[in-house]
């Protein structure tokens, strides 16, 4: 591993895996299974192991976006992976795309998008959220994602930059739709996440007024299965519905 690189430490305890994020900083990492000297991680390749002072063995892994979703510090409820997949697939996001995002939150969606796209610029109005998101993005090791503190409407009103995809996850998203068109390249996608049907409807109608085409609003439901020797059935207390996604093309 490299200096300042983020590492996923995984260990097994009572037939269950425990996972932790830490950085190769030279400082000690503390958890209930003992102290790990992160300086020793410099000599370990991904897939290797390290032992705490209590004799607990950890596997050393390079974290991926799903690990950041589970383990990064949150400032609110992030967009779920099932919805992230819909955004990436329906908007056709690829390695040449520049993306404008609003509603950074914890930075989870920005991490997923930054793992795929060329560049992501994300706006968040709350400074405390911006600080936390920047820390999470630093942990993710993404240099192509920039988090800015500001109002996306003010930014889009200027119309001074153009993007392949714009993703909105903000309270007044319908009011922002009218300005998104002037910030998109021809053929680009606007994606709006709405927690309620009424908001999704308002977004859809505003997109029609703004001249977007190929509009589509969808809901992605996910059901996890619980597998045991006794039988297999839907897992209890799992999130199925989260929100609605509206896609519109310029």
Structure in words:
The protein has 250 residues and is an alpha/beta fold. It has two domains: 58 residues, Roll (Vcp-like ATPase, Chain A, domain 2); 183 residues, Vaccinia Virus protein VP39 (Rossmann fold). The protein is 26% helix and 33% strand. The protein is built from seven helices and 15 strands. Strand 13 and strand 14 form a beta hairpin. The chain is globular and about 65 Å long. The termini are far apart.
Q: Could you provide a short overview of the structure?
A:
By secondary structure, the chain is α/β, with parallel strands linked by helices. The chain contains seven helices and 15 strands.
Descriptive labels:
250 residues, Vcp-like ATPase, Chain A, domain 2, globular, 7 helices, tRNA (Adenine57-N1/adenine58-N1)-methyltransferase, 15 strands, methyltransferase, SAM-dependent_MTases_sf, tRNA_MeTrfase_Gcd14, alpha/beta, Rossmann fold, four-stranded antiparallel β-sheet, tRNA processing, seven-stranded mixed β-sheet
């Amino acid at each position: 591993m490299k200096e300042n690189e983020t590492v996923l430490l995984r260990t097994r305890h009572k037939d269950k895996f425990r996972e932790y994020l830490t950085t190769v900083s030279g400082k000690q990492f503390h958890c209930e299974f003992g102290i790990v000297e992160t300086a020793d991680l410099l000599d370990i390749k991904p897939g290797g192991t390290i032992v705490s002072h209590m004799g607990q063995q950890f596997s050393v892994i390079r974290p991926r976006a799903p690990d950041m979703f589970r383990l990064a510090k949150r400032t609110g409820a992030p967009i779920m992976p099932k919805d992230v997949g819909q955004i990436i697939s329906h908007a056709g996001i690829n390695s040449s795309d520049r993306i404008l995002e609003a509603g950074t939150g914890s930075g989870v969606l920005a991490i997923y998008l930054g793992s795929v796209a060329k560049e992501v610029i994300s706006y968040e109005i709350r400074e405390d959220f911006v600080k936390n998101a920047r820390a999470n993005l630093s942990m993710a090791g993404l240099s192509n994602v920039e988090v800015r503190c500001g109002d996306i409407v003010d930014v889009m009103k200027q119309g001074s930059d153009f993007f392949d995809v714009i993703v909105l996850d903000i309270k007044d998203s319908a009011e922002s739709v009218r300005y998104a068109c002037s910030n998109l390249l021809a053929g680009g996608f606007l994606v709006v996440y709405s927690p309620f049907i009424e908001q999704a409807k308002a977004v859809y109608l505003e997109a029609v007024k703004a001249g977007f085409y190929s509009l589509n609003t969808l809901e992605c439901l996910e059901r996890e299965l619980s597998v045991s020797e006794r039988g297999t059935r839907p897992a209890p207390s799992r999130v199925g519905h989260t929100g609605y996604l509206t896609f519109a093309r310029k």
